[in-house]
Sequence to fold (231 residues):
Amino acid sequence: HFASRTALDIEGLGFETVELLVDAALIKDAGDLYSLRIESLLTLDRFAEKSARNLLEGLEKSKRQPLERLIYALGIRFVGEGTARTLAMRLGSLSALSGASPDELQQIPEIGPRVAEAIRDYFASPRTQRLLRKLTSAGFRFEERSRQPRSDRLSGKTLVITGSLSSMSREQAEHKIIRHGGRATQSVSKKTSYVIVGENPGSKYEKAVKLGIPILGEDEFLRLIKDDSAA
Fold:
């Protein structure tokens, strides 16, 4: 999970490789990955010099992934990709997340009592603290690198995106929603405030029309948040 494409996306670190490293007693947790050396890897059957160097390069690149990816990679119970993105945007650093009380966390949209307690329990664990010390020593930065000024233009609003957007990725659009105080979700319901529609929309668009949910094109969405940038 830590190395998966939607987490830290570490090339060359699939299930079989992880199993091999654990069996060889080279790693006990994800933090140990960053202590691997080429000499140790070359003693293992599956590694030639090229594959060993590729893995080490992939590990080095993973340190530059955004905070939301790292939060998701940690495997905190109930914290999926969307929740990790919200936490990164709202709190801005891992230290702020780890130090937040359950009551403080529940002030964030999408964070209910169950998720808040899971986050608190995760960071209270000595095992987690050991992992974070290793990641710190490896050179990870635990802050959101591209925090931008936020507004409350979408405060209390829930938005769903369907179809392909031309000026931004879905992830970038979700960033904008969160940055402006809204909540980005994956499913349309009566509680949905707006559905943003791009090219080739799917069944979410049809459901929105059926429920009478306001539809926004890409340009209308940008005008709503008064944002002309694509990032």
